[in-house]
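Exercise 7 asks you to align residues with tokens for two separate proteins.
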Amino acid sequence: MQILIDRYNPQSDSAPYTQSYHLIDDEIGEDTMLLELLQRLRIQDPTLGFRSSCQEGVCGSDGMNVNGNNCLSCITLAKPLGNRIHIRPLPGFPVIKDLIVDMQLFYDQYKNVDPYLKSDEKLSSDPEHEILQSPEEREKLDGSYECILCACCSSSCPSFWWNPDLFPGPAALLAANRFVIDSRDITTIDRLKSLDKAEKTFRCRHIQNCTAACPKGLNPSRAIQGLKHKIVKNRS
């Protein structure tokens, strides 16, 4: 198996380059994940840089672009990728080293949508008082809170590539919608007003790249569409 990896160390390389590695096919099982191959390659070449932590598709640290698609290497089977695999860093982010990218802007955009519950201060400060939801109200949050912030969706979004300093991106807008629809939050109107800008929510063109890239099977595009409807309704 041939594995091509786009490499770049800004401290020592004048430009990015592609390095070719080879592994013996017989040593790759049907259940071998791509991350395991990368770990084998790093034994061969300790200078190879990539992130990984939980190795279970929970932490989201090992997002990368594989054969043109964003994914998590720890839950991506190697065999179906073929005998020639091309691995690149997540698009749209500055490269720190090889497959390691600087996600600070992604985190900043996520923080800017206030991704936390804003409830009545008197009630939330009282440990004896529960802020209750009906089962139906709780069910509305399914598909919104499971995001692991791997950035696979945002880094597959052309709107985020073009305006990362203005457009929050799919992950941030998914989180924004999660708190807009939460029955316990008391700042729904303020949230909708802050998102009612051409360069924010309405920059999304719904090309579905984000939904296709999400390793958790979430649908950011649908959440953003719902957010747009709520914003328009709030205007009247």
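Second protein for Exercise 7:
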Amino acid sequence: MEQNVFIAKDVTTNPAPLGLTGFGLTTMLLNLHNAGLFGLDTMIMGMGIMMGGLIQILVGMLEWKKNNMFGMMAFTSYGAFWISLVFIWIFPKMGLGEAPSATAMGYYLAVWGIFTFGLWIATLKMTKTMIWLFGTVVVLFALLAIANFTGSHLIHTIAGIEGVICGASALYIAIGTLLVEVYGKQILPMP
């Protein structure tokens, strides 16, 4: 008796560039604020909820479907980070709890930095661009935590500048990956 064998092939696209775009754009905008170029407003909060939050969580679930644990953990976690950060900003204004102290925010940012350090360790088996990206995220969380613990405006501004570089790095990887698919070859260097 003859048996038919069916092999399922995943033909869905790579969701990572979308997640990196959400992370990159939102990180750049928040850190332009941190660098002192404009105030914290609903533009950043809207980006934090939609691109930083919901898009990254969606991408994390798509990475889960593709059996990519790293992508699932990174995108889903950072999506939750952005949504929680916006809630931290708006809940007190809505009378839903007290605003966190600078020390509490320092710890919030520090634990995210510790988590990111763990992800950075995983990137040591990946490309140099991913090592760089996650390294800049670790440094960003460290600088922001230190700025909150110390109240240093200078460190906060330096964190903002570093954060723009971090976000731009994510966007660079996203566009570089997109161009590989569109052109069928590597256009931007991504060692």
